[in-house]
C-alpha cells in the first residue's frame, strides 16, 4: 500500500507518520499492512493542492492507494480577512484531491472540523445533524466537505476539534508557556467542546485506511469541557503555579465568532470500526507526562 499525506509537517500529519514508523500508538498496534506501507509526506513546498493541474501531475506520478489530507488554512481569525485564500486551501484544495483520487481509484481521507456547525445547542452533535457554520473558516471547511462528497466515491470525512499534538503550536503549549510567565490567565468558560489528542485521532485515521467504511465521521476525545476547564487541567497536571480565571467570550473581541457549543458524538466510529478515543482528561495527562519526560 502507498499512502500520501498532505500537510505532513503539521501536528496531525507528523503524528500519523510517527505512528506508522513506530508501528504503534498510545492506543495500541497499527495494522501490519499499514506499517509495511510506503509513506510519502508532503507539504505546500512540494505541492500546492489549490492548483488542479499540479495536483493531477504530482499525485498521478506517485499513484497512491490512499491520500490523507491534513492540509488546511486553520488561522480562524485570518480567514475572515483572507477569504479567497481560505476558500482555495480549505475548499478548492480538497476538491482537487477528490478529483484526482477518483481518477486514480484512490481513497481520500479528508480532515474537517467542528466549526462546520453553528455552535448553538446543548446535545453532542452527530454526523447527520444539520451544519450551519458562522465563520469563514467553518464555511470554507464545509465547502471542502461538499466538494469531497461530490467528486470522490471513496471518501472518509473526519471531523475533529480542539486538537493538540506533540508537534507544532497548540492550546496546551500556549497555556504552559503563559502559565510560566504570568500570575494568572483569563480563559473563556462559555465555550464547550472536546479536547482531542492528535495521537488518538491519528490512530483512528489509520484504522479507517484499510477499510471501505466510507462516510463522514466525528473523531474527538471522549467527554466535554470548557476552555477554562481544559486550561485549568493543563496547568494542574504541569505543576505550574498560575491561577486560571474564568471569563466570557464577550471579554475577548475577535474577528471570527467561535462556537459556543460544538461537542461532537463519535457515532459513526462506534457503529463501524470502533471508538477507542480516550477520555480527554486521560489523554491530556499522558500527553503532559510524555513531554515532561523529554
TrEMBL record:
InterPro entries: dTDP_dehydrorham_reduct (IPR005913), NAD(P)-bd_dom_sf (IPR036291), RmlD-like-bd (IPR029903)
Keywords associated with the record: NADP, Oxidoreductase
Single Gene Ontology MF annotation: dTDP-4-dehydrorhamnose reductase activity
Pfam families cross-referenced by the UniProt entry: RmlD_sub_bind
RmlD-like substrate binding domain boundaries: 1-291
SUPFAM superfamilies per UniProt: NAD(P)-binding Rossmann-fold domains (SSF51735)
Key word Electron transport present: no
Domain of life the protein comes from: Bacteria
Class of this enzyme: oxidoreductase
GO cellular component annotations of the record: cytosol
GO biological process, one term: dTDP-rhamnose biosynthetic process
Pathway the protein takes part in: Carbohydrate biosynthesis; dTDP-L-rhamnose biosynthesis
Entry EC no(s): 1.1.1.133
Protein role: Catalyzes the reduction of dTDP-6-deoxy-L-lyxo-4-hexulose to yield dTDP-L-rhamnose.
Similarity comment: Belongs to the dTDP-4-dehydrorhamnose reductase family.
Full protein name: dTDP-4-dehydrorhamnose reductase
Organism: Clostridium manihotivorum
Gene: rfbD
Amino acid at each position: 500500500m502507498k499512502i500520501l499525506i498532505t500537510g505532513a509537517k503539521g501536528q496531525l500529519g507528523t503524528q500519523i507518520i510517527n505512528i506508522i514508523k513506530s508501528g504503534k500508538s498510545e492506543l495500541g498496534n497499527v495494522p501490519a499492512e499499514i506499517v509495511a506501507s510506503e509513506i510519502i509526506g508532503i507539504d505546500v513546498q512540494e505541492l500546492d493542492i489549490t492548483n488542479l493541474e499540479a495536483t493531477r501531475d504530482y499525485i498521478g506520478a506517485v499513484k497512491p492507494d490512499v491520500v490523507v489530507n491534513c492540509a488546511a488554512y486553520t488561522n480562524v481569525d485570518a480567514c475572515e480577512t483572507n477569504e479567497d485564500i481560505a476558500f482555495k486551501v480549505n475548499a478548492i484544495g480538497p476538491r482537487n484531491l477528490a478529483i484526482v483520487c477518483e481518477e486514480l481509484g484512490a481513497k481520500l481521507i479528508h480532515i474537517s472540523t467542528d466549526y462546520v456547525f453553528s455552535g448553538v445547542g446543548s446535545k453532542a452533535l452527530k454526523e447527520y445533524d444539520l451544519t450551519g457554520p458562522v465563520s469563514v473558516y467553518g464555511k470554507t471547511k464545509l465547502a471542502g466537505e461538499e466538494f469531497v462528497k461530490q467528486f470522490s466515491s471513496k471518501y472518509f470525512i473526519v471531523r475533529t476539534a480542539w486538537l493538540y499534538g506533540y508537534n507544532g503550536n497548540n492550546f496546551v503549549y500556549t497555556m504552559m508557556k503563559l502559565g510560566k510567565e504570568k500570575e494568572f490567565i483569563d480563559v473563556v468558560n462559555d465555550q464547550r467542546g472536546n479536547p482531542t489528542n492528535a495521537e488518538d485521532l491519528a490512530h483512528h485515521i489509520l484504522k479507517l485506511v484499510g477499510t471501505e467504511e466510507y462516510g463522514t465521521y466525528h473523531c474527538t476525545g471522549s467527554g466535554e469541557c470548557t476552555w477554562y476547564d481544559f486550561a485549568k487541567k493543563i496547568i494542574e497536571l504541569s505543576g505550574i503555579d498560575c491561577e486560571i480565571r474564568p471569563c466570557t467570550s464577550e471579554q475577548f473581541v475577535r474577528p471570527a465568532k467561535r462556537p459556543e457549543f460544538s461537542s461532537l458524538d463519535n457515532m459513526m466510529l462506534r457503529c463501524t470500526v470502533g471508538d477507542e478515543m480516550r477520555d480527554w482528561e486521560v489523554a491530556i495527562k499522558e500527553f503532559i507526562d510524555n513531554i515532561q519526560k523529554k
